[in-house]
Design goal:
The chain is of the alpha/beta class and about 300 residues long. It has two domains: about 140 residues, Rossmann fold (3-Layer(aba) Sandwich); about 140 residues, 3-Layer(aba) Sandwich (Isopropylmalate Dehydrogenase). Helices cover about 40% and strands about 20% of the residues. It contains twelve helices and eleven strands. β2, α3 and β3 form a beta-alpha-beta unit. α2 crosses α12.
């Protein structure tokens, strides 16, 4: 029986609970919020804990947080330095010993340096990219919408935008959207040489039938006519993607990052995001994200990695 698409984060968690439990490794696990999130994931039976870092310090953290029971089955890997922890984590992922990596008490660049190592890393695709999900209510019904790339690709060129689409499609399909609608975003839906992102969007849209077999792609779209059918109709945009975008491909990192933070901090939406383009899902939540946000990110990783 075909499953209905996941529309909320609570549904995301419920769907993840139906999948095989995944080994989730916290890299530099001396981090309160990451430990709380993983403990919750273990309690929800979606994760088996792997903790990388200074074992004594991690155990002290676990005890202080009163998480001893939840994390009693954890496997520990001793690492004295941040670099060593990141290298161990990547090696475990490369060898199939862990299924998902979760950033702990280290910087994103420190983890990604190991992930991107030419000989020992986890890179699989053309590039790594960040896909963020939030609960969108523009249509009057809640649904999960993606935004990419607000974390890794500063100024994507034409080929990189194509790669961003390809990285994002499996995320949306993991939610049960068999043929996701991908919107190439700009400040305007009108094509203008003065706004280069509109020209890129036009070029990709014209070749979309040749480039993509598993999604529908259209652009340029502005934010309103990407999410609202009424706005798309008012502007005379007839594409089925317009007004119903599942994932927004932003023109640059600034647009993606600011849009993502706006929906979270101004709109009040819960968010979860994942790095794609590696052999396994890599979760790099920011330091200000809550344990709940990180729990949903773990659940998202479970669905993406589902057998």
């Amino acid at each position: 029986m075909k499953l209905q698409p996941v529309r909320t984060f609570s549904q995301l968690l419920e769907r993840a609970q139906k999948e095989k439990t995944k080994k989730v490794a916290i890299v530099c696990a001396e981090n309160d919020i990451a430990l709380k999130a993983l403990a919750s994931a273990v309690a929800k039976k979606i994760a088996r804990p792997v903790l990388i870092g200074d074992e004594n310090n991690i155990r002290e953290k676990i005890s202080a947080l009163d998480l001893t029971a939840e994390l009693s089955t954890a496997t520990f890997f001793q690492a004295r330095t941040v670099e060593q922890a990141a290298e161990y984590a990547v090696a475990l992922g490369r060898n199939g010993k862990v299924d998902i990596l979760l950033k702990g008490n280290l910087r994103t660049d420190q983890l990604l340096r190991a992930v991107l190592h030419k000989e020992k890393g986890l890179r699989r695709g053309e590039l790594l990219s960040d896909i963020l999900l939030y609960e969108d209510k523009c249509s009057g019904k809640t649904r999960l919408v993606g935004i990419t790339d607000g974390g890794l690709t500063p100024q994507p060129n034409l080929q990189q935008k194509i790669a961003l689409i390809r990285n994002a499609v499996p995320v949306m399909q993991a939610l049960g959207i068999s043929r996701p609608k991908m919107g190439l975003m700009s400040a305007t839906e009108s094509i203008s040489e003065a706004v280069p992102s509109t020209v890129d969007a036009q070029k990709i849209t014209e070749k979309a039938g040749e480039l993509f077999t598993d999604c529908d792609v259209f652009g340029p779209l502005a934010l309103d006519n990407a999410l609202l059918k009424s706005a798309a109709e008012a502007k005379g945009i007839s594409s089925p993607v317009a007004g119903a975008v599942d994932c927004m491909i932003a023109p640059n990192i600034e647009a993606a990052n600011m849009t993502a933070k706006a929906v979270k901090y101004i709109g009040g939406s819960t968010c979860a995001h994942v790095i794609m383009g590696a052999q396994i899902p890599v979760l790099i939540p920011s330091r200000v994200e809550s344990a709940e946000d990180k729990l949903y990110a773990i659940a998202l990783g479970v669905l993406i990695d589902a057998d």
